[in-house]
């Protein structure tokens, strides 16, 4: 098992639908710009010697439903040579299996693949132990993972003040930047108990990007923006604090979507360099850099 802040070696970057599959000009633009940003993101990862893999949709995919291969983090978790896959649709499980098998069919490199219903993988956090957020993970699911990985220390704890919901992802609550360092939102709970002696920055709610939030609200609630057949694409982003939804490149570099003085000052204190990766439609998709990626392999 590897902590989420060790040096990233291989990353699976999500994918939305092709603009060629739609007629509406606004939707074409959203899809084009989303893919453009993900390609630029992939190039930055590759410049740091990270191997990038990307999934592909089936030709007959129903594009009216939310693109399930975009939020790679939602459906994937890898622990001790086992790749856990859990999506809403069987065909999407097959897409992730295909990506794995395409590159790992030789020798001893193939993982044991375990499929399950809605995995809630963003609420399973890997540090020096694996933390299961009781806000989104049931105790039964926690016991299943614990039983299947007896040599790994597992912790089951509520990590925010939110009500139980498998859709409430922990990577929107806090980010373990490196060993001993965490960035968290005001809704986080019990971090001092789970991470004793770690330096934890609790973000000021007033530092959220309110301009982006307003634009998001306009898109979410205005029929003139999103045609009815694509409304299911839109997440509930006004509750999301993207400054914690970051991707750890290693213990010296953190990939973020924008400048936040409070965050950048804290990173400087801990000798971590922020790398800004634009993701223009993060509020529409309700997903940041951590959501869009799966760290398949780290040192």
Question: What this model shows, in words?
Answer:
This protein is of the alpha/beta class. It has a single domain, classed as L-arginine/glycine Amidinotransferase, Chain A (5-stranded Propeller). The protein contains 7 helices and 15 strands. It has helices at 25-47, 90-103, 139-148, 191-194, 210-221, 261-269, 282-285; strands at residues 8-13, 51-53, 76-79, 82-85, 112-115, 124-126, 130-133, 154-157, 174-178, 181-184, 199-202, 247-250, 253-256, 273-276, 293-298. The protein has a 3-stranded mixed beta sheet with strand order 2-1-15, covered by helices on one side. Strands 3-4-5 form a 3-stranded mixed beta sheet, covered by helices on one side. Strands 6-7-8 form a 3-stranded mixed beta sheet, with helices on one face. The protein is globular. The N and C termini lie close together (9 Å).
Strand order of the largest sheet: 2-1-15
Give the biggest beta sheet. 3 strands, mixed
- Indicate the CATH architecture: 5-stranded Propeller
> What radius of gyration results from the CA coordinates?
18 Å
Here the CATH topology equals L-arginine/glycine Amidinotransferase, Chain A
Number of strands: 15
Entry keywords:
25% helix, 7 helices, 15 strands, globular, three-stranded mixed β-sheet, 299 residues, alpha/beta, L-arginine/glycine Amidinotransferase, Chain A
């Amino acid at each position: 098992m590897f902590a989420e802040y060790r040096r990233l070696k291989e990353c699976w970057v999500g994918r939305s639908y092709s603009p060629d599959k739609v007629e509406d000009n606004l939707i074409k633009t959203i899809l084009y710009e989303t893919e453009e940003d993900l390609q630029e993101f992939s190039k930055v990862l590759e410049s740091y010697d990270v191997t990038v893999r990307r999934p592909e949709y089936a030709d007959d995919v129903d594009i009216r439903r939310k693109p399930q291969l975009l939020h790679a983090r939602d459906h994937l978790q890898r622990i001790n040579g086992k790749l856990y896959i859990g999506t809403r649709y069987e065909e999407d499980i097959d897409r992730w299996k295909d990506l794995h098998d395409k590159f790992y069919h030789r020798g001893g490199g193939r993982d044991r693949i375990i499929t399950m219903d809605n995995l809630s993988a963003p609420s399973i956090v890997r540090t020096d132990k694996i933390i299961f957020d009781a806000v989104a993970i049931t105790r039964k699911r926690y016991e299943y993972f614990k039983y299947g990985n007896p040599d790994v220390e597992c912790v089951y704890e509520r990590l925010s003040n939110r009500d139980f919901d498998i859709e409430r992802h922990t990577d929107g609550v806090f980010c373990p930047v490196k060993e001993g360092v965490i960035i968290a939102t005001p809704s986080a709970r019990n971090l001092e108990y789970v991470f004793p002696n770690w330096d934890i920055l609790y973000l000021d709610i007033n530092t959220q990007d309110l301009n982006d939030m307003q634009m998001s609200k306009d898109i979410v609630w205005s029929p003139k923006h999103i045609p009815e057949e694509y409304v299911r694409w839109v997440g509930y982003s006004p509750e999301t604090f993207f400054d914690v939804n970051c991707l750890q490149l290693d213990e010296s570099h953190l990939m973020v979507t924008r400048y936040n003085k409070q965050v950048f000052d804290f990173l400087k204190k801990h000798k971590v360099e922020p790398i800004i990766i634009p993701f223009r439609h993060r509020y529409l998709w309700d997903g940041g850099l951590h959501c869009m990626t799966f760290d398949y392999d780290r040192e």
